[in-house]
Amino acid sequence: MTPVGWEDTKRRVRERREAAGLPVRSEEQKKADMDRLAAEVRAHRLAEIRQEQTGADFGDTDYTLT
Q: Are 61 and 55 in contact (CB under 8 A)?
């Protein structure tokens, strides 16, 4: 079995998707999606840090009225 490089594998998958009429994202779309995901991860991490700094634990807050 001949070793196949990652770029060649991605190219073949892209060609198969195009031939099958399936949607194929452009490089610009992939970059935009990756940037959006990275921004979401950063925002989530910042929220976690703020929560740790304030000592708030919103997940275990008891809102029971007594």
A: no
CA distance 48 to 45: 5
Residues 2, 54: Cα–Cα separation, whole Å: 56
Please name the residue that has the structure tokens 């194929």. 24
Question: At residue 65, does pLDDT exceed 80?
Answer: no
**What 3 state SS string does the chain have?**
CCCCCHHHHHHHHHHHHHHCCCCCCCHHHHHHHHHHHHHHHHHHHHHHHHHHHHCCCHHHCCCCCC
% of residues, the chain, pLDDT over 70: 83
Rounded CA-CA distance 24/59 in Å is 39
